Amino acid sequence: MNFGDKVGASAAASPVHREYTLVAEDAELEIAPGEVVKPWTFNGTMPGPTLRFTEGDNVTIHFINKTPLIHTVHFHGNHDEKNDGVLPQIIPAENYTYNFIADPAGAFMYHCHAYPTSLHIRMGMYGSIIVDPKDSEVLKPAKEFALVLSEFDPDNQDNFVAKYYPVNGYIDQYMGENALKIKQNELVRLYVINIGTTIPYSFHLHSTVFKVYASGLPSNDPIDAQTIEIGPGNAAIVEAVWKSPGTYMFHSHGFLEERGNMGAVRVLSDGSGEQLSESVSMIDWQYELQKELQKPTVIDYDNLSGSASAQSHSSSAHGGTTVKIVKGAWDKNQRDYYEPAEITVEEGAVINWINEDGVVHTVTSKQQGLFDSSIIAAGQEWQYQFAEEGEYDYYCIVHPWMEGIVHVE
């Protein structure tokens, strides 16, 4: 059974055991009209599918890494160390099975925890989790939506202020015809998570004061709010009712609302006054709309090695000059990444890069397609022969602040 069989399932239908598959895949997808990006994803979308359990479920997550980089799945909530998604780090073409009891009830998130974690998150490796209370009386019947607030900068993922602040992976996707549609006086429940890496989101609904379960936990007493601050890595369950028909905005206060963090709720007139007898999930609809807008294309990699071994591009070359990828090179604050960072060799020379760091790296030419080591695991090496004179700038795809230069005379 894969994730799609259970997205949006009701608490009443919850089995004792639930089984899902998450696949780390690189993809090309659209994040804004005409803006195609290449994120790292779970199951080809950004965010990945919403996972839904009931409190007390025995959950199995099969994780498969189909990318050239190391990834993991870290789950918010209660679980033991081996299911925390930090260690082991799952190398290319390998898989890992997580198993835990869904606990406690609330709105949570999952994301990659490979190093540097903030980059893996910003690059798209995240999704939402909903754990329904085992006691069906804890939350009243409502129309339900999931909102994942994130950030993405196709120009530079290190920018503190990102170019885009999408909701569910596409800017302003709930404006116009795709507004969230509800009925007048109908209880609406929003599972809101902030997967961003920089600032709190001040989440705001127009024309209503709403109730909030802080940190997305129904165990907390709800408070009345006009705007609720949700910090990076945190969540909120928001419940609202609109008394008058109309179209009302929702967004995060600040510059984010001008950069994609804007949506609308369309409240339809309903004179019946009938209330929902059970919750209605719109999360399936949201995910289908997301895929329709993003138009994702998964990137398939040939000859992906489970051992992540680096292969030489110069089988005839022997000897050569050594460049070390130094210990701690993954840390942006260290500043020393390669030793030496700048090197001069003669035409035809071979350079051997040795990874003395504890995580994976690449040696990739800034001139597209010229040379690329793919993954160099800890303790491994890769070599390349420079056949022509010139100046060759290179960097690490996983840690793009790592830069070096080769002068060939």
Automatic annotation (TrEMBL):
Cofactor(s) needed by this chain: Cu(+); Cu(2+)
Stretches assigned to the Plastocyanin-like domain: 34-135, 162-263
EC number per UniProt: 1.7.2.1
Binding locations of Cu cation: H71, H76, H111, C112, H120, M125, H253
Blue (type 1) copper domain segment(s): 337-409
Keywords: Copper, Metal-binding, Oxidoreductase, Repeat
SUPFAM superfamilies, alphabetized: Cupredoxins
Keyword Transmembrane helix: no
Catalysed reaction equations from the record: nitric oxide + Fe(III)-[cytochrome c] + H2O = Fe(II)-[cytochrome c] + nitrite + 2 H(+)
EC top class named in words: oxidoreductase
GO molecular-function terms, A-Z: copper ion binding; electron transfer activity; nitrite reductase (NO-forming) activity
Subunit: Homotrimer.
Protein name: Copper-containing nitrite reductase
Source organism of the structure: Nitrososphaera gargensis (strain Ga9.2)
Name of the coding gene: aniA2
